[in-house]
TrEMBL record:
One of its GO terms (molecular function) is ATP binding. SMART domains: AAA. It comes from Planotetraspora kaengkrachanensis. InterPro entries: AAA+_ATPase, ATPase_dyneun-rel_AAA, Methyl-DNA_Rec/Restrict_Enz, P-loop_NTPase. The lineage of its organism: Bacteria, Bacillati, Actinomycetota, Actinomycetes, Streptosporangiales. This is AAA+ ATPase domain-containing protein. CDD domains: AAA (cd00009). Residues 469-633 form the AAA+ ATPase domain. Pfam families: AAA_5.
Amino acid sequence: MDREQREVVCRAAQKVFNQGLLSGQSSFAPGLNIWSPAAATELFHRFVENWDGSSDEFMVKLERQIATGSDEAIVLAAELLYLNVMPLSPATVGVERKFEIINTVLSWASRAVTVPEDLAAAASPGYMKGGQAFLNYRWAQFAFLIRLTGLLVTLPQGEREDALRDPWTFRKLAESVLADHDGKFRARAQYHVLIFLIFPDVFVPVSVERNKKLIRDAFVDRIAKPSDDIDRDIYGIRCQIEQETGAFSFYDEPWLSRWQPPAPPRSQKGWLVRGANVDGTNAISLWLGGGYCSISFKDLGEIPGGASRQEIKGVVDAALPDAKQGAKDAAAGQLWRFLSYFQLGDLVATVDGDAVYVGTIAGDAYYDDSAGRHLARRRAVEWNPQPLSRKNLPEETQAKLKTAMTIAELTTVMAELATDAGLGDEVTDAVLVQDETRTLVIPQVTQELADRLLIPLTWFQETADLLASKRQLILYGPPGTGKTFLATRLSEALAGPDRTSLVQFHPSYGYEDFIQGFRPRQGDGGTIGFDLVDGPLLKAVEAAVQEPDKPFVLVIDEINRANLAKVFGELYFLLEYRNHEITLQYSPDEPFKLPKNVFIIGTMNTVDRSVALVDAAMRRRFAFRCLAPDRAPVDGLLRRWLTREKLPDIPALLLDEVNRRLNDPDRAVGPSYLMTPDAGTRRGLERIWITEILPLLEDQLYGKVDSVEQEYGLTVLLSAIQRELP
């Protein structure tokens, strides 16, 4: 951390915050009184009380909540967001993005307001890598700043001045409004950052309480006796060291390496360890009282912690010679996880009826049979003794807790679980980034996209909302109605090109192609081997798990050309029950689930096979959206495109006449055949008609008309519409 950058940021923060609280005046709009009970109360009503739990992005929701408010409330919101994003380094939030956020909010005011040059310069560098906690809970941090501002501006002037002079009084006031609307404490990082910004000579530039504890414990010999107040302890340590060495930073050497632990061999994980029925005994009260968790297998002797999987397997095989191999493998895997794979700092949960207890692994595996061999294999755990209610947890978490396994991984739901249990500061970025309980952010479809594609925005947004609700959608219609084109454009609008993939089904496509199957490979010496290869669905799932708050879309073109029951297999179940886990036929030992952020859009040509032939199971799991030449949004699309391209309307008139004569919505001709500049020239239109449209009609009308040319030829139709080609 650069000390000069921190000092610049702190001075700017104090100018905005202190000046606002003492004078009421805005730093962005001099003369505007925004640090007032009226503005703070309005912001509280609009944002905190009107909490928006939708899947929209933070700025989209914020605009809905405050954009129609008073100038005072809007500018106050911008200054509080300035305090929120200003300390972040470009590695967390880029400079352009910082000012995009602030200037967007200021644009909602009725007057022109800009960030003054000195404050803009201070916000540019930043000093703090915020991490996932800071990014995930921006709404909670903003709400905390609003609550604190609302409290401070209602204090008498003298008490406000005292709070800005006394760091401990200020901290106490900040702590009093730290709880979110639901009683949780998601804004702790913002709280730690703010007290440092306002009092940098007292508090340290640390946003994670766990790191503060590490600093205090590493230098505890510098104070007479540690207390329950970590900030006061660190302040005492800091004063003692500064007397000896002068100004210093805990982030500089030789101080940093004394408190910062070495990186663990792998990233943090979360685990479920069952203890409510250990050989007929409910061990959880013993775990909580003794500060440990345990795993039984009392028929086995002592196995040292850190033993390899192969060593543990050998012990199990010798002790249970008559057990089935599958049971022995499962036992060895459970023991290996507990004895060797768990590591210091991992998070752990256990369930006792409706009560869910959460803690942190605090030591290596050890053996203690004082309470019986069924409780002998132990791990030290720092438990939070206050349980959570299982029925109040997110659906994803409840589903994970249903597993019958003695030990199961909970990493993807552990961030919310630990935060609810008051252990949010123990959660690392590695767990936060996998948190599937986070609200899935689905961007709004923009007017710019609708205008570019000449499709009504209402249709696009309705389709996006339908996909968000059902998670599986099929666009169906006759050829040329833009099904694949619109599916890919909609996918890219919602998920971006990098999170959109496309696969085309065909009659020989199967489960092994789509989900997972063995594929031959050339081995050494010309031999042939087989590898288990993931199909496009599993590849999409693997990517989606890494970013659970962002949508991933798999577009399946011509979905009805394959045997859907054969292709989807057991996935039929997961399409409807996203929070459940199953095992795949080629990976029976690994639980699999379809993440809520994986969406599927299929396209279905009604000429190839009727929609009516799709079985009831598939119909129930997919929403269907029709694209037909005589209905919105396709109706009139060709005419709109010709107008925009300044081309004659003859192609639109011809298309209308063709479809009038066909009189069959499932066999109508779509506009995309004619949405090309070639359709604006005589030669181009003749070529399209002879090589594309007439062959299509001949195939569709085989055996139904004597001569397609006589009824649908270009000359015949031009005569019918009373037009001539240029």
